[in-house]
Design a protein that fits this description.
Layout lengths: L6 H6 L4 H14 L5 H13 L11 H6 L24 E2 L8 H10 L5 E11 L6 E7 L2 E2 L1 H4 L6 E10 L2 H4 L1 H11 L20 H4 L1 H4 L2 H7 L9 E9 L10 E10 L2 H18 L12 E2 L3 H32 L3 E8 L2 E6 L5 E7 L1 E3 L5 E4 L7 E6 L8 E3 L8 H7 L2 H11 L2 E3 L13 H6 L5 E14 L1
Parallel strand pairs: 1-2, 16-17
Antiparallel strand pairs: 2-3, 3-11, 4-8, 5-7, 5-9, 6-7, 6-17, 10-11, 12-15, 13-14, 14-17
Helix pairs in contact: 12-13
Length: about 475
């Protein structure tokens, strides 16, 4: 290019500032090698005919920001009140960028008549309903796909009063503990532990939950597939770390998993119910909501709460088993969840439901863990309570390659070389979870300095995945 286009150049040509910024981002990430002529012609067509680009994989978010709309299907029933253009929301970007299709998904969500506020975290990428890394506040309603299929998925960190160097020097023993004391995917433990969550009254009062109690009991203390893990690593605690512990390196255990088969079944049941009760245009149907003033909405809220408690119980079981195998008690425990909905109040006084789909709660003073990948560091953080992010932060690094893209472009040799370089012992896992498939966690953290402060760093060393 003879001259690099900037947001202010497009604003001078009549572009709204938000849409201009998104367009510049698309050019920089998706069309680096196109000619000046192609760029100017495409941008001119976008500005003049945004409707023609709304469904485009690259330009959809920009087109929507320009007021473009998907023509509604003839004869389809549309819930009254779908907005022609979305309300404002915040985008917290990092150098790694956010894919336009993820931005478009939050634009679509902000067109709902129940939408009150929204935010996009720097790890955001395309998902179902809301994007992963999307935060949405609604009035009087909850969106099952805004919570996600893995209800209450969470992070849990135990820090032991043991030297962090054990994660490097005692990997064989630690790997053996993980192999004996964890179960993934379709696996379950030979002997399940009892847990108070199985006595929750919701299992008896809610028909959908009652039918799943047996599955929940069998899977208690196990982890899902995909990006779920249990791993030993080194935690470096900073001074003034909020735990009253001396600064230094400690052995730590980090787990990531959710509500297993029970949560998935509940999510799909209530998503199907929402789509029947709240009929939306085809491209918006995954955003169907349940009215919390109706039995269906109250039922889902009870089911979601139970699934979240169950996910926490699974982590509690995992950490108890491994602490017993280590003959140690955790001196620090930090746990936070995502894929959930919370009752909250906006600064303007409105009572809302805040959905965090793949986003970490980050109210002022709230502790959490933001992981990187199987070979990249994670961070212990304390929320700064930023209202623009709806008191939220990223839940990880965020994917930059889909699973199929990762399998087609990353080699086993490159993954093995990286693990060897970082001194990471991997049990299970696959190419689709290689660090190369994720954004740079350091860039993501740099993009949310207004959202959290870092209290410590976790470096994975012995990792087990499905």
């Amino acid at each position: 290019m003879s001259k690099k286009l900037r947001t202010k150049d497009l604003v001078k040509l009549g572009w709204p500032k938000r849409a201009a910024g998104l367009a510049i981002n698309v050019l920089a990430t998706r069309f680096k090698r196109e000619s000046d002529e192609w760029r100017h012609a495409t941008l001119g067509n976008l500005l003049a005919h945004p409707d023609n680009f709304v469904s485009d994989q690259n330009w959809g978010g920009v087109a929507t920001a320009l007021g473009g709309r998907v023509p509604e299907e003839a004869g389809s029933y549309i819930t009254p009140g779908i907005l022609k253009s979305p309300g404002d929301f915040s985008i917290f970007e990092s150098k790694a960028g956010i894919a336009p299709n993820a931005v478009q998904q939050l634009y679509d969500a902000m067109r709902l008549p129940v939408a009150a506020a929204g935010a996009l975290m720097p790890d955001a990428h395309h998902g179902y309903g809301l994007p992963i890394g999307g935060v949405l506040a609604t009035v009087g309603s909850v969106i099952p796909y805004g919570v996600g299929v893995d209800i209450g998925c969470r992070m849990c960190l135990s820090v032991f009063d043991l030297p962090g160097e054990l994660a490097d020097n005692d990997q064989s023993r630690l790997a053996g503990i993980l192999q004996r004391e964890t179960a993934f995917g379709l696996q379950t433990h030979d002997r399940a532990n009892d847990h108070p969550v199985l006595e929750d009254d919701t299992f008896q009062l809610l028909k959908t939950a009652k039918a799943l109690k047996g599955k929940a009991a069998r899977q208690l203390g196990s982890s899902g597939g995909g990006n779920h893990f249990v791993e030993f690593g080194q935690v470096e605690l900073e001074t003034n770390n909020a735990f009253g512990r001396p600064a230094g390196s400690y052995l730590a255990l980090l787990s990531h998993s959710g509500s297993r088969g029970m949560g998935a079944k509940l999510a799909l049941h209530y998503t199907d119910l929402a789509m029947k009760e709240c009929r939306l245009p085809k491209h918006l149907k995954s955003l169907a909501w349940l009215d919390l003033a109706k039995d269906s909405g109250r039922e889902y809220w009870a089911a979601m709460t139970l699934a979240g408690d169950y996910a926490s119980a699974c982590h509690d079981d995992i950490h108890q088993r491994i602490s017993k195998a280590l003959a140690e008690k955790a001196m620090v425990r930090v746990e936070n969840h995502h894929n959930f909905a919370w009752k909250d109040r906006l600064p303007d006084g409105r009572d809302v439901i805040v959905h965090r789909k793949g986003a970490t709660p980050a109210a002022k003073g709230e502790l959490g863990i933001i992981p990187g990948s199987m070979a990249d560091p994670g961070f212990i953080v304390r929320g700064l309570g930023n209202p623009a992010s709806l008191n939220s932060a990223s839940h990880g690094a965020g994917r930059q390659l889909s699973r199929s893209e990762a399998k087609n472009s990353i080699t086993g040799a490159s993954l093995r070389d990286l693990l060897k370089e970082r001194k990471v012992h991997l049990i299970g896992g696959g190419i689709d979870e290689a660090p190369h498939a994720y954004k740079d966690i350091h860039e993501v953290m740099a993009g949310q300095q207004e959202l959290v402060e870092v209290l410590g760093v976790f470096r994975p060393k012995v990792v087990r995945m499905a």
